Amino acid sequence: MQATITASRVSGRARAPPSKSYTHRALLAAGYADGAVVRHPLVSADTRATARAVDLFGGETERRDGDWDVSGFGGRPGVPDDVIDCANSGTTMRLVTASAALADGTTVLTGDSSLRSRPHGPLLDALSGLGGTARSTRENGQAPLVVDGPIDGGTVSMPGDVSSQFVTALLLAGAVTEDGIEIDLTTELKSAPYVDITLDVLDAFGVDASETTAGYRVPGGQTYDPEGGEYAVPGDFSSASYLLSAGALAAEDGEAVVVEGMHPSAQGDAAIVDVLERMGADIDWDTESGVITVRQSELSGVEVGVADTPDLLPTIAVLGAAADGTTHITDAEHVRYKETDRVAAMAESLSKLGASVEEERDELVVHGGDSELSGASVDGRGDHRLVMALSVAGLVADGETTIAGSEHVDVSFPDFFEVLSGLGASADG
User: Fold this and answer.
1) Is 410 annotated as a binding residue?
2) Handedness of CA 154, 156, 160, 165 (dihedral sign)
3) Which fold has domain 2-17+235-428?
4) 164 labelled as ligand-binding?
5) Which residue of the set 46, 311, 379, 383 is catalytic?
6) Active-site residue 311, yes or no?
7) What is the pLDDT of residues 270-294, one digit of tens each?
8) Whether residue 339 has pLDDT greater than 90
């Protein structure tokens, strides 16, 4: 499918979807429990993949009145009677691979062509070091994966600069092992706030886990049991970033874009509020009510490191292209290993739209002062975050912008184009 965005102004109130990161973890945590109700979850292609995995491990997930009712597998996943298809969800693949190592038998995991190109080697090595066997069928660290368990826990060393999801996967699984799991990181952890999200969810489910001087530790023999048998998912700042940026770039004169449901949480991508403030946006966050208000503003380029917030790179790149001066996005090499190489993809697409962009291995430099955005045909590369960020660029590019692969917003923000249109944008997705 193809989205068509025409330069337009926006205003009004909208609500960002629930957090994808929290929903994944809550669904799996409810699976590790005897069961729980996950309230206000994000229902998307990615989170449905995690729910299917819970079902295959012996749990049962059912959508009911906007919530997800989960009957769990009580801490010990069964051997699936079919291959676990994680579709395009890297989070599902990483988290569920560790779950598979708890089962007393063999589990096979795969996904679509994009997911089968993403690295999993450090997690496979860690699970093998804990007494299981975990391998890539192509011996390249990429899916399809074959995992044999069960593991009892122990201590492992692993790099932290490939994916924080490896740490998350081991912490979630380690709580129900006999010995627990201690993770010693051999390199600096990238995307650390995502592990903070994991610790937040574990705490809500009554599981003790903590950071150590060398990494992280979760004691074994624990039980997942959320208070009152339920868990409520907060709003998603990654998704809100597109609406907030739309307001900062294209709000009607004298009007604002108001985004609801944005209460403080462990999400690193809440940093988008700070980034917009630094760039000069007229933005106000009422943390008590969870409401963020942003008005159209003259923005200036800044330097932003995305070591902990890789999902914000496409959004910040678009803001930089529309700002005065130069925006330096640094610490970005790991952003190349997402659904697509987001550094290269944004450099290519923004250049087609008329932006002046320099791409380095670990950095994206956008010269907004030398850019004049005009509508063009660009490719979302099957990546939901590229599609949404480029849609925001289309609001301030002269003429008409078309984006291939618009259906992929279903991964994290299924009604994105409806919400954008509801704010007054000329957006046909």
Assistant:
1) no
2) negative
3) UDP-n-acetylglucosamine1-carboxyvinyl-transferase; Chain (3.65.10)
4) yes
5) 311
6) yes
7) 999 999 999 999 999 999 999 999 9
8) no
